[in-house]
Specification:
Number of helices: 22
Radius of gyration: 26 Å
Shape: elongated
Largest sheet: 7 strands, mixed
Distance between the termini: 86 Å
Number of strands: 7
Low-confidence stretches: 469-489
Helix content: 55-70%
């Protein structure tokens, strides 16, 4: 009987991992790469911004060829690229480079391969959260935690981002596993297991080289251990040894990060870190609550008709209020029970200390990180663990959570929820308003983020324009029209031009662009930081090409972009 139960138990774990893997790898290439993912691609392919064709015009169809693997690049070189041209630690990009090297040639599926490693770490986090709850509460709670993370729309969204979120989340979950082992050893063993402390220190050392926000988790873990030392000091036998283990482990982690200290100081002073807005009164509080809701349920409310937004928003609110009351009541029970009190205290303390640091960044440093739900990856594992423990005795609630999460994940992988910032696919659709007319995309840049943003738009536009001939041919069955469109696509071009030291430098470079080889051209200018009035009414290209602004085709999705209709008089 025991063997049968164990078999069913591990079959359940395998089912949770398999379900999580399916959801994370499903439609992995459906969403377009956005700015941050382009940044990942550049460094992970062994390149840097100096390898990109800047301040020149080139055919749009060549853009995907830029994102090819550069062999023979060392992790040390990648670290130098990241140190000088980005604001992140290097280890994630080194790992991505090694992963992509195994998958060469990347071919047309390079976006899927780029996102596959984060998806894999997302699956690994499912197994890790099982380990946390199995130690903290019970085997059944571990299985439920695994299923909740498997179908969490937030976790699936992070797993489908070619960014360093699931890798640190996986390590934070392993860090919590070590923290739970330490908490149990405090009261159950006469001496601390130094092997556990060493492993915990190694996990944190690696994590600091993957994402700077990992430091928030590390500080929260240290603070939690100190709370446990004072809260349960009557039950702890060898306090002096535990203090010694904590001091040695913490010191070793800090010493391991010394080589990167000068780099992190320079990163904090870079302009790329100033994009976060200042907090607005109590907005960070309700933005935090919204982030919590999105961990369990996410229905389509982005860029939807008002009626759908109202219905989905109401359903999410009802669900949040209903389950929130139940979870609060069950957590209170876990807190009061002797068998689960310390485990609940450990996970709650970790989450609270991370949140306190979040609000310190918001209200003391003036950077509202709560506007970005993805940053909650720092404490999401502890929330998932507590949520699973609070519903583990109620099978009906468990099934409801899994069903709601699964439905939400379908919306996530279908690009209806957690849509990419700046919406590259929508920008491409707006720019492709006349598929038969040649197109030119020009992006103004003042920093490397603008460059990455421009290439994200170019990738989405190139994909759409390259498909247009086939779609037109299928729909209209007109060979001549298809030839016209093919000719237009082959005439498309792209340029990223420097905007500094001021806007006049951009317009000067723009005027020197080569004249179009066709009589008509749709020119789109993306100008980060530009106001609508900054776009002149008329522009001149070299030769006899005049471009007139189209007032009806001005858009702003994070950044403004404007259509000019150009005519080459010499070709008419």
């Amino acid at each position: 009987m025991t063997n049968r139960r164990l078999t069913l138990h591990y079959l359940g774990l395998a089912g949770a991992i398999a379900l999580g893997a399916i959801l994370r790898f499903w439609h992995l290439d459906l969403k377009p790469l956005w700015m941050d993912e382009v940044i990942t691609a550049i460094f992970s392919l062994g390149k840097n911004y100096h390898d990109l064709p800047l301040n020149v015009a080139f055919p749009l169809e060549y853009v995907p060829e830029i994102f090819t693997f550069q062999p023979g690049v060392s992790c040390n070189q990648i670290a130098k690229n990241v140190a000088t041209q980005s604001t992140h630690p290097p280890l994630f990009f080194c790992g991505m480079y090694s992963w992509l090297r195994l998958m060469t040639p990347l071919g047309s599926e390079w976006v899927t391969k780029l996102r596959s490693l984060p998806a894999l770490f997302g699956v690994g986090a499912i197994a890790a959260i099982y380990g946390v709850n199995r130690i903290a509460f019970s085997r059944a709670s571990g299985i439920i935690a695994a299923f909740l993370m498997a179908v969490s729309p937030f976790a699936v969204y992070l797993s489908q981002e070619a960014r360093h979120y699931t890798m640190p989340m996986f390590l934070i979950t392993l860090g919590l596993w070590g923290l739970m082992q330490i908490q149990r050893d405090m009261v159950e063993r006469t001496q601390p297991r130094f092997g556990v402390w060493i492993l915990w220190a190694i996990i944190n050392s690696i994590g600091l080289y993957i994402h700077y926000f990992f430091a928030l988790a590390f500080i929260a873990e240290i603070a939690t251990i100190i709370v446990l030392m004072y809260w349960g000091k009557a039950k702890i036998r060898k306090q002096r040894q535990i203090w010694l283990a904590l001091i040695i482990s913490t010191s070793s982690v800090l010493i391991s990060f010394i080589p990167w200290l000068l780099v992190i100081l320079s990163h904090f002073q870079r302009s790329e870190t100033n994009w976060l807005p200042s907090p607005t009164h109590i907005a960070p509080l309700y933005q935090t609550l919204i982030s919590w809701v999105l961990m369990a349920i996410a229905l389509p409310v982005e860029n939807q008709p008002l009626l759908i937004v109202a219905i989905c928003g109401l359903l999410m609110l009802i669900f949040a209020i209903g389950v929130g009351r139940q979870i609060f009541k069950n957590l209170k029970i876990l807190w009061l029970q002797d068998t689960t009190h310390l485990a609940t205290l450990t996970l709650l303390s970790f989450a609270v200390f991370v949140l306190l640091q979040f609000f310190a960044i918001v209200y003391i440093l003036g950077k509202d990180i709560t506007v970005v739900p993805r940053y909650t990856f720092v404490y999401y594992p502890s929330v998932c663990a507590l949520l699973a423990a609070s519903i583990s005795k109620n099978h009906q609630s468990t099934l409801i959570f899994i069903l709601v999460g699964f439905i939400s994940c379908i919306f996530v992988v279908s690009n209806l929820v957690f849509q990419k910032p700046f919406q590259p696919e929508q920008v491409a659709q707006n720019m492709n308003l006349e598929p038969s007319v040649p197109l030119s995309l020009v992006v103004a840049y003042s920093n490397y983020q603008d460059v990455a943003l421009g290439f994200s738009f170019a990738l989405a536009l190139e994909q759409l324009r390259s498909q247009s001939p086939l779609e037109e041919l299928k729909i209209n069955k007109l060979i001549n029209k298809s030839r016209i469109i093919n000719s237009a696509v082959n005439s498309d071009n792209f340029a990223v031009l420097q905007k500094s030291p001021d806007l006049s430098a951009f317009w000067k470079q723009f005027s020197q662009l080569p004249a179009p080889v066709t009589s008509k051209l749709n020119l789109w200018i993306v100008g980060p930081g530009l106001r609508r009035r900054d776009y002149p009414q008329q522009l001149e290209l070299s030769g006899h090409t005049t471009c007139n602004i189209d007032p009806a085709q001005h858009y702003r999705i994070g950044v403004p972009y404007q259509l000019y209709r150009c005519r080459n008089i010499g070709l008419q």
